[in-house]
Amino acid sequence: MKTTLLHCIFLIIPFLGFSQNPNYDKSLADSLGADDYGMKSYSLVMLKSGGGNIEDKSKVDSLFRGHLDNIGRLAKEGKIIVAGPVEKNDRNYRGIFIFDVQDKAKVAELLQTDPAIKADLLAYDIYNWYGSAALSVYLETHSKIEKIRP
């Protein structure tokens, strides 16, 4: 049933008459690496609890301070464009990263610069993700509304 419905939708799409966006800015789209839909490929990283167990709270605090500093460094370099924690959950997910890097091996290499990952306090899964090419420019605005930096 679902397959038949999807086939019908895809058969109808060509007749919907998609039109050119009057606000389209080709130079901006090109500078952001956007395709015709204003989208591009990224790497989505799901951070999760690692297997490491460090009893020394000051050591753990230091590793997570390094984790935050590393996020800042990667953002300044334009490699990571989204980072943040997620609520407690039954899958042990801790946060997400979205990298403006499509090569999973390169992303894994960049993740090894994170002290909390190197200490196995955090682990990760990497996925290809397709989203708005404008993600990379939101950080300019965020820096203007961020009153306190972590």
UniProtKB/TrEMBL annotation:
YCII-related domain location is 58-129
Q: Which InterPro entries match?
A: Dimeric_a/b-barrel, YCII
Protein name listed in UniProt: YCII-related domain-containing protein
The entry assigns this protein to a family as follows:
Belongs to the YciI family.
What does the record give as the organism's lineage?
Bacteria, Pseudomonadati, Bacteroidota, Cytophagia, Cytophagales
Q: Short name of one Pfam family for this protein?
A: YCII
Organism, by scientific name, is: Marivirga sericea
Q: Which Gene3D superfamilies match?
A: Dimeric alpha+beta barrel
